[in-house]
Amino acid sequence: MRASMLRFIKSLTTSPSSHIVRRGYASEAVPERKVTVLGAAGGIGQPLSLLMKLNPLVSNLALYDIANTPGVAADVSHINTRSEVVGYASDAELGKALEGADVVIIPAGVPRKPGMTRDDLFNINAGIVKGLCEAIAKHCPNALVNMISNPVNSTVPIAAEVFKKAGTYDPKRLFGVTTLDVVRAKTFYAGKAMVPVAEVNVPVVGGHAGITILPLFSQATPKANLSDEVITALTKRTQDGGTEVVEAKAGKGSATLSMAYAGAIFADACLKGLNGVPDVIECSFVQSTVTELPFFASRMQHSGASSLFYSCIFAMEVRLGKNGVEEVLGLGPLSDFEKEGLEKSKPELKSSIEKGIKFATQ
Ligand SMILES: NC(=O)C1=CN([C@@H]2O[C@H](COP(=O)(O)OP(=O)(O)OC[C@H]3O[C@@H](n4cnc5c(N)ncnc54)[C@H](O)[C@@H]3O)[C@@H](O)[C@H]2O)C=CC1
Ligand SMILES: O=C([O-])CC(=O)C(=O)O
């Protein structure tokens, strides 16, 4: 392995000595942070648990699944990084897995097979998510919840309704993880624009299914002079990215490795926000008043001493402080193509949101 690669891995995994924080993190001591992964033994859960074990911001890693948890937890626990790993294997242990969690990541539920839409997962995953969120409301009502389970456009509203019913709902703390859409948009854009992928940024707004995924290539950086045809093709590829993987896996599930990467990036952003790192910006499916829809994925900036903040992307700029959003980031002008995409996405997004709300409130 090349020396530079070894240095990179070491920089990712070495616990700061005496809790002195390294460059890129907060300027004070690294606080204790517990992260709980629900569905930790699954296709996403395993590599995501590995990546969270590599994150020096995590002090306690709770791995929960209804099957195969002990093996995954034993395996991950042998890695010589900061966090202490505990596996929780049954419904009776869910409360302990959640107790004291700062961030709960939920990749529990069934994945798609070729020919299915994400909405086809609703009947099974809605019940799983509802049960897990009831437990979150009971055992760690202040945790930041990162919802990965599909259909995200419905599972986030389900979670919100469960929390409302329990009296614990805080819209600043519930996130649909749409980071994989951003990851894909960046990768595909870099390939066409012939720019270094590490330098690319592309906001992706809307929701997390088909045409509700709205990459804003008009705002992609570094700028590139791409034709309308190329932008249309990039947009479609980003919207169909999940299906591309589902078909390539031919019945063996959906994106797991790229999703684990995306989930780890988003959870890391949550932890940085909690730790007071300024100017942390991510896209996420969060409660918003930007459109007439109750939920909308948007770029947000979060920081603060003890809470995480969201803001909506629509033509607003945000700066965040210790108590919430201080400044909303501007969306900037949408191209005609993006405006049209937004209008087209609204009915589907609305109906998926309503379906989730109806399920959770009936
Ligand atoms: N938001 C996003 O961008 C993405 C979301 N997904 C979604 O993530 C979910 C998980 O996908 P995979 O990991 O590939 O599936 P998987 O089937 O490999 O793993 C799911 C895991 O959840 C566990 N599980 C089921 N019910 C549970 C419960 N009540 N409590 C705790 N764990 C439970 C299972 O035992 C299994 O280990 C799917 O719904 C998939 O559609 C997948 C890729 C991207
Ligand atoms: O497509 C799926 O079913 C999984 C998913 O959400 C994605 O890969 O974006």
Automatic annotation (TrEMBL):
Single GO molecular function: L-malate dehydrogenase (NAD+) activity
Single GO biological process annotation from the record: tricarboxylic acid cycle
Enzyme Commission numbers on file: 1.1.1.37
Keyword Oxidoreductase applies: yes
Catalysed conversion reaction: (S)-malate + NAD(+) = oxaloacetate + NADH + H(+)
One Pfam match: Ldh_1_C
Quaternary structure and partners: Homodimer.
The protein's name in its UniProt record: Malate dehydrogenase
Provenance organism: Populus tomentosa
Organism ancestry: Eukaryota, Viridiplantae, Streptophyta, Embryophyta, Tracheophyta
